[in-house]
Amino acid sequence: MIVAGPKQDFQALMVEIAAKLQPPKALRHLYDVTGKKVTSFAGLIHGENYVAAYGSFISGVSYDGNAQPSWINQRTPRGRRQSDVTLLQGRSDVSPMSWTGSEEVDEVKELTEEENADDNQNNPTFCLNERKSSNNQQDKQKPNKPTYGHNENTVSRNKNKQKDRPDFTTAQQRNIPQKPTPLRNAENPRPLKRQIIAIYKNDKLNLTVNEEQTIPDIIDDVCEALGVKRKRDFKLHPFANNDVIDSMDSLFTQYRDCDKFQIDDVNVTQSDTTLHLPKPVESGAIGLKLEWVYGGNLRRDVYVTLSGEVVVASGTLVVLHDVTNMRQRFYTGHNEDVTCLTLHKSENLVASAQRSGSDDVTSGDAHVRVWSIDNLAVTSQFGHGLLGNTVRQVEFSYSGDLLAVVDSANLSLWEWKHETMLGKVTCSHTDVTATIFTRDDMWLVTSGSHHLAFWSVDEKPSKLVRNFRCGVFPESAPEAVACLTSSFDDDVITGDSDGRIVVWRKDNVDVYVLEEEMMCEGPVTSMCMLSDGTLTAGDSQGTIYSWDMLRMCSSAKATRKISNSAVDVIVRSPHFDDVLMCFSGNGWLTEGSFAETWKTTFLGLGKLIVGMAPLPDHSGICASDVTGHVVCWTCERAGDVIWQAELKDDVTCLDVHPVHDVLLLGSMSSQFFALSSLDGARLCSRHVTASVTCLCFSDYDEMEAVSLVAVATEDRKIHIFYVLEEGRAYVIKCVIDSYHVAMIADWSCDTTLLRVGTHHNDVTMWNVETENRVDVLESEGFWFTNTCATERNVTCQSTSGSLKVAGFRVGTIKLWNNKVLISKFKCTTSDVTNVCLTSQYVFCSGGTLDAPFCARWRITTP
After folding, report:
1. What pLDDT is stored for residue 278 in this prediction?
2. What number of other Cβ atoms are within 10 A of residue 701's Cβ?
């Protein structure tokens, strides 16, 4: 029932009708029950029923006073349009796999009296059009399918008028008996459903499936949506292997962490041009097992669970790091970079979000996953096709029922248990770095660069409204508001780039105004509220502060210098309330309290890793980031550090001598440095003509007790040096003028030939004796190292015996055994910069400048 005022605008009436019905798309037209269009208040009659629709009126549908709003998708002759699928995915009560439609309808089946007598369960379903196919009799016998048609008010539909219908229209919902709905759990009694990505050849389709369907139903709907005529037998299998999925139970249990599924012909043999992997090797054969991830994105979104595990994102992984016992667990459900995550207030659930990939077929859409910390099982996932390319922030409400999601352009509010979007607004600022709910869940605050916004949260109807009177600085506003927290009085506390900590409190008209200011020496980078009312904050200079917020003291009661770098994240220890865990972006964890000493733990490099090489005896792995932070990890126990060193120059590349204990690093300052691989002590340095792009040691000649090293520079020159005095001295041999800037190099076993490659995988060979370019017929075992790749999109590779590992520009590593692909892993959305293969391990690095990725896999053998 809607009451229209005499002075109300007709367009305002349509808006009010849409607010009442809550359709998935704006209503544009109003009709009476006979199909006559109403365009003004003059056409409205008191007490009569009217039909609201997107497009034209559909006849043959009963529009009586008991009809409920329902939205039907009319499929075009070429199949369901992707825009329609994307539009309706935001509805939790609508599953795209339950939509059916057709171009033609011959007749409408009438319900019998017995069926009408049983039709009293009030379980709303959608009144759908029956598909026309050659197997109509078989379709009618399928279980769990709704009976198509209407009640006694049903009239036959005109076949000719069924064509060219609008995409959505209003119709009466049917109360058709269904089989008992399986309970997901005791708190959420609803059908179990999930979202998947179905791939057929080069086409991709986002679908929501429920366990009441069958595998043939899924394949039928995918074929119809993509306009594929199903003349053959198709199979459904995971994108990563060929294990045929024959039941919905397997889809929801065994493959619950798999998002992408391929549809292939049963009789078609896979070729090398298909997008998925070859058939996995037999059980017990060579493979890869992820053992350790070094560091992660420690600059933001770092949390500590009740068990003491540090939750941090790294590439496509979410790492749960037990610092005390030096153990790690991994959530591997994402297939693109995890951009943000948050911890539920119960501290047993994590919500993590990923970005969209660059490849429309092989990469995933931006979406959010909620999963359990205990068993890493997915509770819900949502946002496929509804979020922007990058999800910047996710935040649970204090009640735990709502989840705020900030993508590249919008701010949306979700009821995550039902995977339903409650509201969505345009966020004018794209660089949102922090979000927080007030303790009563009535306000949502977002902040970032030149951005601080207060959003009121209204549950009925669910919407987000920005209050521009809240969060107004009386004087000049800071360049960035970096962090947010709230007090026990429901005050909002912000820390900004000017070193100010501002307390915002609601006045008499529920407007957040500035109440108190506190100052730090440097820009505020992190804050944490303790259970005793103490506010702790860290700045960019490595100093932490504490204030008594119960007494609202403007002066800090304690300060402590704990690091030379910024304190990016502060969290409270799960075991002691006064113990703080401070994380820095350079890879350090500093733990302690104001009254006790502090201990530091190195977790991993904080910038992009530009060089990586194993020690000669494969007992350790050396790596360096772009800032000149060099570290050597032991291979015996993951995570243990042998030594560390700091260079004042930016490093570009790294290599280890095959015999001597020497580590060579190239820099941007037109020189290279020699360090001891035993303890990191500096041995010597040597200047060259320009910035070093790559360097490579040759094999050691035991007869002459000499080896060579090639140093390539940005001015397209390759400098060849003699390595003397066990790597303590370097004497120039010759300089080769190359055609391109060399980024990688290999030596032949006899040290007479040098092979160099560019970023575009253009490979040239040079004779170091004559300094001329040569063409040599290569053979197996011809090269001492094999890092230059000629394959497309390969960024780096390493070989050891019959094994070969390669990194790709799409962030994937692949392992071959005797030229047979046996394993594949998606590490990151960005390029893989380094791979190293030893007798037992595979090391890989990549990522971005501020969010590096570095991990170790164990090579499993029979």
Report:
1. 33
2. 13
Distance CA(684)–CA(162), nearest Å, equals 83
Q: Are 610 and 652 in contact (CB under 8 A)?
A: yes
Cα–Cα distance, 521 to 257 (Å, whole number): 46
* Alpha-carbon gap, residue 300 to 341, rounded angstroms: 9
Helix, strand or coil, per DSSP, at residue 485: strand
Tokens standing for residue 860: 């499993």
Q: Where are the beta strands (DSSP E) in 256-385?
A: 260-265, 287-293, 303-304, 309-314, 317-322, 327-331, 338-343, 349-354, 367-372, 378-382
Instruction: Give me the pLDDT at residue 472, please.
Output: 94
Whole-number Å distance between alpha carbons of 474 and 515: 11
Name the band, by pLDDT with cuts 50, 70 and 90, for residue 418: very high
Edge-to-edge strand order for the sheet containing 662-667?
Answer: 651-656, 662-667, 671-676, 682-687
Radius of gyration of the chain (CA): 32
Dihedrals phi, psi of 87, to nearest 5 degrees: -65, -45
561 backbone φψ class: left, alpha, beta (φ>0; ψ -120 to 50)? beta
Query: Phi and psi of 139, rounded to 5°?
Result: -65, -35
Q: How far is CA 74 from CA 98, 147, 166, 650, 750, in A?
A: 13, 18, 7, 60, 71
Q: Do 518 and 494 form a contact (C-beta atoms < 8 A)?
A: no
Determine if residue 781 is left, alpha or beta; phi over 0 gives left, psi from -120 to 50 gives alpha, anything else beta.
left
Query: Token match 């506010």: residue?
Result: 535
Residues written for the chain: 862
How many degrees, rounded to 5, is the angle at CA 691 between CA 685 and CA 693? 100
Distance CA 349, CA 330 (A): 14
Other beta carbons within 10 angstroms of residue 25's beta carbon come to 13
C-alpha of 373 from chain center: 17
Q: Which residue has the tokens 């947010």?
A: 484
* Type and span of the H or E element at 10: helix 10-21
- 861 three-state secondary structure: coil
Token digits for 537?
Answer: 């904050």
8 Å CB contact between 623 and 854: yes
Q: Is the peptide bond before 146 cis (omega within 30 degrees of 0)?
A: no
Write the single-letter amino acid at 360. Answer: D
582-627 pLDDT, tens digit each: 999 999 999 999 888 899 999 999 999 999 999 999 999 999 999 9
Pairwise pLDDT comparison (721 vs 113), residue with the higher score? 721
Q: Beta strand pairing status for 763-767 and 772-774?
A: antiparallel
For residue 646, which of 658, 632, 664, 628 has the smallest C-alpha distance? 628
3-state DSSP assignment of residue 419: coil
> Measured between alpha carbons, how far is 574 from 35 in angstroms, rounded to an integer?
65
Q: Please give the model's pTM, rounded to 2 decimal places.
A: 0.69
Q: Tokens 């941090």 map to which residue?
A: 312
Token look-up 């440097």 returns 522
More confident site: 8 or 302? 302
Distances in whole angstroms, Cα of residue 604 to Cα of each of 297, 342, 487, 833: 10, 21, 33, 16
Q: Which residues contact 655 (CB under 8 A, 6 or more apart)?
A: 611, 613, 663, 664, 695, 696, 697, 709
Nearest of 235, 198, 190 to residue 215 by alpha carbon: 235
Question: Which amino acid makes up residue 705?
Answer: A
Angle of CA points 342, 347, 351, to nearest 5°: 30
Averaged pLDDT, 135-152: 39
> Can you spell out the DSSP letters for 713-766?
ETTSEEEEEEEEGGGTEEEEEEEEE-SS---EEEEBTTSSEEEEE-TT--EEEE
Residue that has been written with the tokens 């709003």 in this structure? 69
| Residue 577, pLDDT score | 78
Residue that the structure tokens 């439609």 belong to: 101
Rounded to whole angstroms, the Cα distance separating 815 from 854 reads 17
Each residue of 793-841: pLDDT tens digit?
Answer: 888 898 888 889 999 988 999 999 888 888 899 999 899 999 999 889 9
Measure CA 411 to chain center.
17
